[in-house]
Design brief:
The complex is a heterodimer of chains A (about 260) and B (about 300). Chain A is an alpha/beta fold and about 260 residues long. Chain A has helices at about 50-55, 75-80, 100-110, 115-125, 140-155, 170-190, 200-205, 235, 240-255, and strands at about 5-15, 25-35, 40-45, 65-70, 85, 160-165, 190-195, 210-215, 220-225. In chain A, helix 6 (about 170-190) links the parallel strand 6 and strand 7 (about 190-195). In chain A, helix 3 packs parallel to helix 5 (about 140-155). By secondary structure, chain B is mainly α. Chain B has helices at about 5-10, 15-45, 60-70, 80-115, 115-130, 135-145, 150-175, 180-190, 195-230, 240-245, 255-280, 285-290. The radius of gyration of chain B is 24 Å and the shape is globular. The two termini of chain B are about 20 Å apart. Classes of the chains: A alpha/beta (about 260), B mainly alpha (about 300).
Chain lengths: ~260, ~300
């Protein structure tokens, strides 16, 4: 592991929102290192700062203390270098653009060539090649989220940040999408940081689950899932999977310091 | 978006082009029938309240139309030709005012969305500007314009612009702020320049709002031009015709009514042009999103 590049390195990172009496300590003493090629889930109760941590990595908010590096740079520089793609819970597709044009959006901004070809390739990757001329509102929620993933991967970022991307989907679609994301992760060899509040989802997807606790947001445990790849329906029915789910659940309970 | 909502918004708009035309004609016929029916019944019964329906206060609709095809004055051209050339004159003033007001209003909204400080400093004055009666502003603009050797119709356009920029500022500002916060974060994640955020995200999102404003502005610009023509003493526009004919109202009211009809048509033509532009520029998706969004103002 030590020979691999560190994609994210946080040492003693803290984030306080507001000031004075209204200050809220969202994150405290976060130490985390994520290596290239890993799939790391951040899981915890609401208010544990898991989304905030993801936003710190993406330089969408700035830390108040500690040191944070993304791709061996400041998060700000990493963002300027377009080192990461991001997927939100909402697909945030632009309604006036077709599916293909939505995928081309980051490529336009980054002034890349062969945008149409890239968009077609990405849509093929998420199995939506036949929908490139559709508008977002003509697609189901799961399909919209696929487009949003294609858009995030279109410029081949080395890091993919996902903020509860399947939170608004039904259970069936959700499991399909998990399978898809694993396939994309394998095919693109992108490092993924995945925020979720679903224990089975975190265990199924991740190489490592980072368990967080709230008030203030801290990392309470890190659990290597060590489930074999490829992961599929058999994985979901295996004893090892259940055991990991139990382990994460117990870690979450230990971290829960509310009475 | 739940399935039922999706189904609702995906339905095509009711009514074909022909159907819409029929409904417009039906309403017109009903309005004419009410006018003429009132006249008929009130004359028959000898009623004089609220309005005595004689040929000065309430001329027959057909008399108004016939008047259009009579000479303006003895030996002059037909009223309709006179009004047509006046309409073009007023429409030019209104159009230039509409463009100036629209560009100015949009620019202000961009300035305000970029800088909350500017919005706080200037928004109260933008609002205050609309509480000052245009009747008071118009003569000032005309006099100042005259001193600066600006053509008179241009001064009138500026008066028109004064009325048109306001709806654009208010609506465009709301539209520019309408993108979801995560869409703004997405643009930030791409390290997009402010101008790219503006043109690729905020302006397209604002288009439905802007067109709503432009429809209001289209009518307002005609009103502004008409009012601007009054103190300007401009003899070439519809405003002057309205003024002259309203002074002759007691003697021959049909001319005023006929002119009012023509003025209304000018406004309708303008709004229709804006609506057609909207159909071309605003995609179905944005329009439906606009209709789905709860209206909170």
């Amino acid at each position: 592991m030590t020979t691999m590049t560190q994609m994210v390195r946080a040492s003693n990172v803290g984030k306080v929102f507001g000031s004075g009496n209204e200050a809220v300590e969202a994150l405290k003493g976060i130490n985390l290192s994520i290596h290239q090629g890993e799939f790391v889930s951040l899981i915890g109760p609401s208010g544990c700062g898991k989304s905030t941590l993801l936003r710190l990595i993406g330089d969408l908010v700035a830390p108040t203390s500690g040191e944070l590096e993304v791709n061996s740079k400041t998060p700000h520089q990493a963002r300027l270098d377009r080192d990461y793609g991001i997927v939100f819970q909402k697909s945030t597709l632009l309604d006036w653009r077709t599916v293909a044009k939505n995928v081309e959006l980051p490529l336009e901004i980054m002034d890349q060539d062969d945008r149409q070809a890239t968009a077609s390739r990405m849509l093929e990757l998420v199995q939506l090649a036949g929908f490139k001329d559709h508008y977002p509102w003509q697609l189901s929620g799961g399909m919209q989220q696929r487009v949003s993933i294609a858009r995030a991967l279109a410029f081949s970022p080395s890091l993919l940040l996902m903020d509860e991307p399947f939170g608004a989907l039904d259970e069936m679609t959700r499991e399909l999408m998990q399978q898809e994301v694993l396939r994309l992760w394998k095919e693109t060899q992108t490092t993924v940081v995945f925020v979720t509040h679903s224990i089975p989802e975190a265990v199924f997807l991740s190489t490592r689950v980072v368990v967080m606790s709230a008030r203030p947001g801290q990392i309470s445990a890190e659990i290597e899932t060590a489930l074999p790849h490829p992961r599929n329906e058999d994985t979901r029915e295996s004893q090892a999977y259940y055991d990991k789910i139990t382990e994460v659940r117990e870690a979450l309970r230990r971290g829960d310091n509310t009475p | 978006m739940s399935a039922s909502v999706e189904r609702q918004v995906r339905q095509p708009r009711t009514g074909s082009r022909a159907g819409r035309l029929v409904s417009i004609v039906v309403v017109l016929v009903v309005l004419v029938a009410i006018w003429e029916g009132y006249k008929l019944v009130w004359l028959e019964m000898g009623w004089i309240r609220p309005v005595r329906p004689d040929d000065t206060t309430m001329p027959h609709v057909w008399d108004m139309v016939i008047e259009l095809f009579r000479p303006v004055r003895r030996g002059g051209g037909l009223l309709i030709l006179d009004l047509a050339s006046r309409s073009l004159y007023t429409l030019r003033e209104a159009l230039v005012g509409f463009v100036i007001g629209g560009v100015f209003g949009f620019s202000l909204s961009v300035l305000f969305v970029r800088s909350t400080l500017m919005e706080r400093a200037f928004m109260p004055y933008v609002v205050a500007s609309q509480t000052i009666p245009i009747i008071a502003i118009a003569p000032m603009v005309v006099v100042w314009g005259g001193r600066l050797d600006i053509p008179q119709w241009m001064s009138i356009s500026i008066i028109s612009a004064y009325l048109t920029f306001f709806p654009v500022v208010i609506n465009a500002l709301r539209g520019l702020r309408s993108p979801d916060p995560s869409a703004m974060e997405l643009m930030r994640s791409y390290a997009a320049k402010p101008s790219e955020v503006l043109w690729k995200l905020q302006v397209p999102a604002a288009l439905p709002f802007i067109f709503t404003a432009l429809k209001i502005s289209a009518t307002a610009s005609v009103i502004g031009a008409l009012i601007g023509e009054l103190p300007a003493g401009s003899g070439d526009g519809l405003g002057r015709a309205l003024l002259t004919f309203s002074q002759q109202f007691g003697a021959r009211s049909v001319k005023l009514y006929a002119t009012v009809i023509v003025t209304a048509i000018v406004g309708i033509v303008f709004v229709t042009a804006v609506t057609l532009a909207e159909r071309r520029l605003v995609t179905e998706g944005a329009r439906q999103e606009m209709e789905l969004r709860p209206q909170t103002i």
